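Thread amino acids onto this structure.
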């Protein structure tokens, strides 16, 4: 989120939506509603304003550098990492698999449209460092992005910059 120049060896990874996985998780919610069943104890169901995104790591020995986030208009975007090696085709998402801290970016409706986004710097720094840590053992990491207060997927862009450890 800062404007400092990136190192020449910086790697920026873009969060990409996983529509198939989002749909699969929505079908789980729909199935439970239709059959009148309850979720498993500790299961984390996808909320209507949430979407599944992913980061794919081509390199794994990384140090976190910074976040790049843009939001056109107003709203709040919350990013929650999934810390376990989650196999969505085999297991349901459980609350114990969610990573803390979460990342939150926002612009209030009464803020000027060209105002800077607000975010919690310490939490975002720690969150980025945790992602770099988990990248050492994972090729793919999943995230839940919650879009609230007017935020829309078409109006956001999010990536994370890393530098190789070597």
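Threaded sequence (166 positions):
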């Amino acid at each position: 989120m800062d404007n400092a120049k990136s190192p020449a060896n910086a790697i920026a990874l873009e969060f990409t939506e996983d529509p198939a996985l989002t749909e699969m998780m929505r079908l789980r919610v729909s199935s439970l509603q239709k059959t009148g069943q309850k979720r498993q104890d500790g299961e984390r169901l996808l909320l209507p304003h949430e979407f599944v995104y992913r980061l794919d790591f081509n390199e794994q020995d990384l140090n976190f550098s910074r976040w790049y986030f843009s939001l056109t208009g107003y709203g709040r975007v919350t990013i929650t990492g999934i810390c376990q090696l989650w196999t969505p085709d085999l297991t349901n998402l459980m609350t114990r698999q969610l990573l803390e801290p979460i990342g939150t970016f926002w612009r209030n409706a009464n803020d000027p449209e060209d105002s800077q986004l607000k975010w919690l710097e310490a939490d975002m720094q720690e969150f980025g460092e945790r992602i770099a840590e988990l990248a050492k053992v994972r090729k793919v990491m999943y995230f839940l992005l919650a879009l609230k207060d007017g935020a829309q997927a078409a109006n956001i862009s999010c990536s994370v910059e890393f530098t190789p450890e070597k």
